[in-house]
Amino acid sequence: MNILAIESSCDETAASVVTDGTVTVSNAVASSHEMHEKYGGIVPEVAARMQLEAVLPVIREALSPLRKSPNEAPADTIRRDIDAIAVTQGPGLIGSLLIGVETAKTIAFAAGKPIIPVNHVLAHMYANFIGGNPVSFPAISLVVSGGHTELYLMESHETLTWLGGTLDDAAGECFDKTARLLGFGNGGGPAIQQAATGYAPKSGTAPTLPKPMLGADNRLNFSFSGLKTAVMREAAKLRDRDMLDDAAIRRLAYDVQESVTDVLVRKTVMAARDHGATTILLSGGVSANLRLREKFKANEPEYAIHVPPVNLCTDNAVYIAAYAFFRGKPEDWKTVTAVPDLSVEV
Ligand code: KG4
Ligand code: ZN
After folding, report:
1. Rounded to the nearest 5°, which phi and psi values hold at 294?
2. How many A from CA of 28 to the centre of ligand 2?
3. CA–CA separation, 231 and 234 (whole Å)
4. Is the dihedral of CA 9, 11, 13, 18 positive or negative?
5. What is the pLDDT of residue 206?
6. Which pLDDT belongs to residue 287?
7. Counting Cβ atoms within 10 Å, is residue 26 exposed (0-12), middle (13-18) or buried (19+)?
8. How far is the CA of 239 from the centre of ligand 2 (A)?
């Protein structure tokens, strides 16, 4: 079964064709990231306009491996080779979501294909099913991205239960905000990772930052806004003393990465113990973080750790198609709508 998926929840416009939820036929992604660099963050209006420009070329690119000739119309490729259209319905930016949803509905109607609305956050975890690696259930799934830090118990493709999430900022948001505070602009998590890599604190020095929510209460919830504030205070203190040099910045980047990754690993393992799961699935942009991967891998072989290749961690349409294959339910195109605040607490 070939699913054409469209993803446009934030500042990426992506389209992909995936066979049987596991084999990637194509993965096209256009990003308006550079455009937002100018403004110091994502401007929803700009993101939506860029989505509008990118959506058709990206879909055309995703269909190109299936074309019989370079001149074949995309509509003909879809009619012949695509069985269903999947689209991100939410959560996300309303302007961006609308572009993807309305485009998908138009294609589904015109080509007479079923349309499957997809929850972007739940879909992230399906990046782990690409390639057909066997996953044994029950599994604990950590979705950790720019907007979400969520833990789920996955007993089967049909039975998914939300266990906890962030009470304020997401882990990715914490990286993005601290990156700005430390002078890395919009470099976000990758910039923090780069600054922290190879840094070794002098032995015996205590970490400068807290590891939030590791106490007994709120076991499976997260909170990262206090950590960001701690970085802000620490940086201000050093700046006042004229001590915020490159080494101090790298130290803070290292400490924030250590705190975030420690909390994520410990709570995920706690959830696995609570539920007798020996499989852990990581996904979302932050799961690209090398230190996080390293810390999770240190828990093998007690747990089977699944983590997608880096290019499938950040936003794309491959996992949207995979989710649609394993868990999606087709709907009448007339009732499919964009839902910016779609709940992730299933
Ligand atoms: O999943 P994603 O592409 O978009 C959302 O759905 O939010 O995640 C983006 C987030 C950003 O916060 C970005 O800073 C973070 O993922 N990220 C990383 C790394 N690569 C991306 N965080 C830490 N280390 C990385 N290597
Ligand atoms: Zn995402």
Report:
1. -60, -45
2. 15
3. 5
4. negative
5. 81
6. 98
7. middle
8. 34
Reference 259, options 329, 337, 196; nearest CA is 196
- Residue to mutate (ligand 1; options 263, 314, 316; most atoms within 8 A of CB): 314
* 288 Cβ inside 6 Å of ligand 1: yes
Alpha helices in 135-221 (DSSP H): 171-181, 188-196
Q: CA 112 to CA 94: how far, in whole Å?
A: 26
**Is 147 near ligand 1, meaning CB less than 6 Å away?**
yes
Q: Along the chain (346 residues), what's the average pLDDT of each consecutive run of 10 residues?
A: 97 96 97 69 84 95 96 96 98 97 98 98 98 96 97 98 96 96 94 96 84 80 95 95 95 96 97 97 98 98 97 97 98 97 97
For residues 165 and 151, is the Cβ–Cβ distance under 8 A? yes
- Give distance in angstroms: CA of 282 to centre of ligand 1: 13
The token pair that represents 136 in the structure block:
């044994």
> Distance of alpha carbon 111 from its chain centroid, rounded?
30
Contacts of 184 (CB under 8 A, 6+ apart): 191, 192, 195
The candidate with the shortest Cα–Cα distance to 126, out of 305, 321, 315, 331, is 321
Q: Whose CA is nearest to atom 21 of ligand 1?
A: 285
Question: What pLDDT, on the 0 to 100 scale, is given for residue 216?
Answer: 66
Ligand nearest to C-alpha 308: 1
Q: 213 φ, ψ to 5°?
A: 70, 30
Q: Rounded to an integer, what distance in angstroms lies between the CA atom of residue 229 and that of residue 214?
A: 18
What whole-number distance in Å separates Cα of residue 263 and Cα of residue 213?
8
Residue type, 98: L
**Residue 248: per-residue pLDDT:** 95
Q: From the CB of 182, is ligand 1 less than 6 Å away?
A: no
- Please give the helix or strand (H or E) that residue 15 lies within, else none: strand 12-19
